[in-house]
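I keep forgetting this: the sequence line spells out the residues, with the fold written below as integer tokens. I include a record here:
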Amino acid sequence: MNRRSLIKGGASTLFAAGLGTGIYAATPAYNETGTPQSAGRVSGQLKYAGNGEFVPSFPVIKDHDICGVDDREPKALRVSDDGELGDCVVEIKGVTAGKNWDPIFNHGKIYQIDCSFQPYVQIIRSSAYVDVHNFDPILHNIHAYEVFNGTRRSMFNFAQPEAGLVDRVDLNLRRGNLMMIDCNAHNWMAAWVYTSTSPYLSVTSVDGRFDIPDIPPGQYVLSIWHPLLGEKTANLSVAANADLKLDLVLT
């Protein structure tokens, strides 16, 4: 771990492929060549129509003035009354050259607010670093793991005992592209960082919407990943100047 303290102060059903841990290690090299000519776009909305997933909850047994008193769920399934599913990573896999990364994805941020990590799911590029902020006037202990094929490898583990602390951590994912973060002081706290070598991905908003522009024409794999539901995939063809609008349903 390289850690630096910075500051004190129409619907189609998805998918035929199986559900799993979702993240494969072998990814093609990606070259930033700028926005491709005749690029396509994939956008749409994701809904959940499953029978429900068991989501364990944990009682809040301390720091009630900051954490509250209600039970907390470390793995959230955020579904609206209309079935719209947030916190899913939608990725076009297999793109080897295309648009440049937006610099905002070079730098991840994890905020500890009211005894929760925010955001719950975020995407950054594989070479990025992460700043961990504590806004709570209590001790948090941040423990991060690389997750691959159902196993976990500890990446970093440090305490932030008071509000105003910020620590910067360089990522060093060896096999997969998923990092899970929890708090050793509050066992319901959890967040996920999804890294990629390619910028062709998006996180669904609270209304389940996603938008991935500037895709070079070609044959790819459309991947949907969620911390609780895992990954599902389907083949995807993007034609020149295509504007694909997908209404997708996870079952």
